[in-house]
Amino acid sequence: MHTKILLTLFTFLTIAAVAFSQNHQTGMDDGDRIAITPNIGEDVDITGQARNLLLARMSNIINLNGLSAQESASYFAMVPQISVVSEDITSTAPPMHALTLYISFTIIDNYSGAVFGETNLEVRGVDQSRERAFTHAIRSIEPRAGQFRVFIERAKDRILSFYNTECELVISTAQSLVEQGRKREAVEILTSIPPVSRECYDICMEMAGEIGPLPERITEQHRQEEHPPEQKVAAGMKGRLQNLEVEVLHVEYTGTGLEIALMLTNQVENTTIRIRNYRFIDREGNEFRRNLFSGNRVDLARGVPTRRTFVYRDDNIDLVTFLRLLEFEFHRLGTLRFENIEVKR
Where are the domains of the chain? Predict the structure, then answer.
């Protein structure tokens, strides 16, 4: 009897040890194989240097805390949301832009939106331009901070549990992608399964091998080479980018800032456009630029003119009486330039 008890106990411990080793092999090495894709959605109002810096910070948060950041598709993504908490212009000389941002980072299932981890923080940036103040705020994010280590560890545990118990969801997602002709994406999510989740890993690797030859990857560079964004100079106060008609209604100094009013029309279809930024150059050659971190989305009904107004505020803007150039950049459409505009007063 005593021998049977010992044998049963030994068998149980052996099974437990095998299960543990499958899910905790060489800690950090296995954690590194859990792939997370840092991704900034189009609904996040951030452009240029600040956007690239945020992507780099997100990659560092993932890589430095035990997971693996990759550019190709994976089952999981890390996404940000940004809100401007406060925005002030200091009374110093020269005046400075002071921004406080509230940033939330979330690790999600790319295909269902289920949340596997979340953390948030406030950051502050100060500089002579709003764009640089925004960039400085992003730069202050410290990827090695304790909150990110906890954030990634919790997400890692939930992801491993998901792979061990919900592997069929990954497989069905990959099958659906194959049926849609998205073979490369299917293979990328199948091969992003960490070997630590042994059973799911083996099944997904076998399935990836059965999918067959993959289509050539189309990079963003290839897309831009085949369909480069337009750069056009308007004739007078009206211009056009693809199906988008743009008219500058007025540029006027209001006493508090420079007001620029546009009329936007798409005669072909209902659509949504996003204005990424605008800039202008005055008579003396001084350049003013504004990245639009909020309020840059415009929903257009077919054939219905839609007015959009922007106000540029700066301590010296009252000295601007003439624009040699006014330029707007539209997401995926290109840039449209207007020239020689009198500032109304």
Answer: 27-211, 230-342
